[in-house]
Each structure stands twice: as C-alpha cells, then as structure tokens.
Amino acid sequence: MPNPENIKPHNFKPGQSGNLSGRPRGIKNKKTIIREILSMSAILPEKQIEALQKLYPSVKNNMSIAEIMTIVQAHKAITKADTFAFKAIMDYADEAFDENTTSKDIKITVEYVTSKNQNEK
Which residues contact 69 (CB under 8 A, 6 or more apart)? Predict the structure, then answer.
C-alpha cells in the first residue's frame, strides 16, 4: 500500500484529459480506417476481371478490397512460389477453415490420413 505522504496531488481535474493535444474526439483510429478500407467494394477494370475469372471462376466484379487482396496473394503464392504471399495466406487459413469446413473437406482429409497410415505400415 502506498505511503500517503509520498503521493503527489493530481494536476488534472476529474473529467479532464491528460493529453490536451491528443487525438480529437470523432477522429477514427488507424484500425477503424483500415477496416473500412478493406471492406469497401472495388470495381476492377474489365480486362483484369476477365483474367482473374479465367483462373478463379467465382471472382465477381464488385468484391471487397480484402477479397481482391487475398486472391492476389494466393495467386502469387501459387504461380510465383512467393513464400511471403504463402505465409500471409496461411496465417489466416486456420481461422477460415475452422468457420467454413465442409463435410467434403473432412472426407478428403480422412481419406488422405487413412491412405498415408496404410502406406507407412
């Protein structure tokens, strides 16, 4: 417990901010700004959409910036063996698959593990 003799009185009144030149009220922080930007819809030029749709048929013209960035990173990881792009995708893969794992995914995994175990015997 602190010694009451060593405690200095506060310079600020109750309800008064300690940082008068801090971020003003109503100004968004960086995390909020980034979240809003990544959730914005982006319309790519027609040539880019067609090129992406040839490779990834589920690509739409009005995807969010986050979706487009994810597709670009996955494409770089696959086609250019970009390990940084691969790591960026795989860092979030567990979260994505935990939420959306289908019975087909589980069946494929079980078949793979079963066949691998049989081959090791």
Answer: 38
The Cα-based distances of 60 to 47, 66, 93 in angstroms read 13, 13, 21
Residues 65, 38 contacting (CB under 8 angstroms): yes
Q: Which of 10-14, 81-85, 89-93 has the least mean pLDDT? A: 10-14
Local confidence band at 30 (pLDDT 50, 70, 90 cut-offs): very high
Domain ranges for the chain? 28-120
CB atoms inside a 10 Å sphere around CB 66: 15
Predicted local confidence at residue 101, as pLDDT: 56
Query: Are the C-beta atoms of residues 66 and 85 closer than 8 Å to each other?
Result: no
Q: Greatest CA span in the chain, whole angstroms?
A: 76
In sequence order, which ranges of 1-121 are alpha helices (DSSP H)?
30-39, 46-55, 65-79, 83-100, 103-120
Alpha-carbon separation of residue 66 from 6, 13, 28, 81 (angstroms): 53, 44, 20, 21
